[in-house]
């Protein structure tokens, strides 16, 4: 069987291959470490922002898969650096002869499969962020007033921190708060006629105002923050409703979070692609180095040329050989029938 993609490697190319693999393996470990940090950063961000994502959104699978893939890439880089360094010394290489084979299989099947899966998730999962944020933010804003309801006590604090940290207001804008009761019922006076009228005027029995929480206020505003009666043009004579950016954050949290998470996913996808390319180069180079040294008995500076290859034979020949060895070769041969004896010749009596 002819080997797949054979490559003749004299002495100097073998040494240069081992030295280049040592540098490439350390580069893979470095890029894999950076990918590991990007994955961890995205996972931490999702830990803070997970409240604003719908439970049906599976975006967290991306950093989790990327963490596993980058960890395998770092291990492959460190193992490749050790193997290529040991291959330059005939006394240090023998312990690696039994390790290289399993390491190549694990790096190709495990690491390569995880990297491909993570890159696929980086392309697919960001598309579901729009709907996930839409539902998650709607739920979070609806529970803003439930400061004494078990399970939703932290909703107000989380929404305020979100708006202050990311400079956003509401789901799509500050007017979203006009259709949500964000004032807790504990602060409403049931004897106040204005409160009663507002509650009775709403079919759902909610206390709605044309105001926003304090976390929507921009600290760069040239005047004290205006939070209430924002839709009344006569309530604030000096306030120009056509320029709300002077007072409130104009961008909705949906747009801000969508851009933030998509940028992180795009950066992580680019790092995964670079890691995949480097890991493929390292694994191919290690395979050529392994097969070349096997032909020399593990001595890289042996005289003469040797041949490196990816597989010892073509796929068709390998499958045919496996079929013959597993099926035809183990099939018992049919027993040969004994040859029939010729009938005895009758002697012709002489007359």
Automatic annotation (TrEMBL):
Keywords: Membrane, Sensory transduction, Transmembrane, Transmembrane helix, Vision. It is a multi-pass membrane protein. One of its GO terms (biological process) is retina vasculature development in camera-type eye. The chain crosses the membrane at residues 21-44, 64-83, 104-125. Its main location: other. Residues 342-351 have a biased composition (Basic and acidic residues). It is found in: Cell projection, Cilium, Photoreceptor outer segment; Membrane; Photoreceptor inner segment. Gene3D superfamilies: Tetraspanin (1.10.1450.10). GO terms for cellular component: photoreceptor inner segment; photoreceptor outer segment membrane. One of its GO terms (molecular function) is protein homodimerization activity. Residues 330-351 are annotated as: Disordered. InterPro entries: Peripherin/rom-1, Peripherin_LEL, Tetraspanin/Peripherin, Tetraspanin_EC2_sf. Belongs to the PRPH2/ROM1 family. This is Rod outer segment membrane protein 1 isoform X1. It comes from Carlito syrichta (Philippine tarsier).
């Amino acid at each position: 069987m002819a080997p797949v993609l054979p490559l003749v490697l004299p002495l100097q190319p073998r040494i240069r291959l081992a030295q280049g693999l040592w540098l490439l393996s350390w580069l893979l470990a470095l890029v894999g470490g950076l990918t590991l940090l990007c994955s961890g950063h995205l996972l931490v961000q999702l830990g803070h922002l997970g409240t604003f994502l719908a439970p049906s959104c599976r975006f967290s699978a991306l950093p989790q898969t990327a963490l596993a893939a980058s960890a395998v890439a770092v291990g492959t880089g460190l193992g490749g650096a050790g193997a290529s360094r040991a291959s330059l010394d005939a006394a240090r290489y023998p312990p690696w002869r039994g390790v290289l084979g399993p390491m190549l299989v694990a790096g190709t099947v495990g690491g390569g499969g995880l990297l491909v899966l993570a890159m696929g998730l980086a392309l697919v999962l960001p598309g579901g962020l729009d709907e996930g944020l839409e539902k998650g933010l709607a739920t979070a804003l609806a529970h803003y007033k439930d400061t004494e309801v078990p399970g939703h006590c932290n909703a107000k604090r989380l929404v305020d921190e979100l708006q202050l940290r990311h400079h956003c207001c509401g789901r799509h804008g500050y007017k979203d708060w006009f259709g949500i009761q964000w004032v807790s019922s504990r602060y409403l006076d049931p004897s106040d006629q204005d409160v009663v009228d507002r509650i009775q005027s709403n079919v759902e029995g909610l206390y709605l105002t044309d105001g926003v929480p304090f976390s929507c206020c921009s600290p760069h505003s040239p005047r004290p923050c205006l939070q209430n009666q924002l839709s009344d043009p006569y309530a604030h004579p000096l306030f120009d409703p056509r320029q709300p950016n002077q007072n409130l954050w104009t961008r909705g949290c949906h747009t801000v979070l969508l851009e933030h998470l998509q940028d992180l996913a795009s950066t992580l996808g680019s790092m995964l692609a670079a890691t995949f390319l480097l890991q493929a180069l390292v694994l191919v180079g290690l395979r050529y180095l392994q097969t070349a040294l096997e032909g020399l008995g593990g001595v890289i500076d042996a005289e003469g040329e040797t041949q490196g290859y990816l597989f010892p034979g073509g796929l068709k020949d390998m499958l045919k050989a496996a079929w013959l060895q597993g099926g035809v070769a183990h099939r018992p041969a049919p027993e040969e029938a004994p040859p029939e004896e010729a009938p005895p010749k009758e002697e012709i009596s002489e007359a």
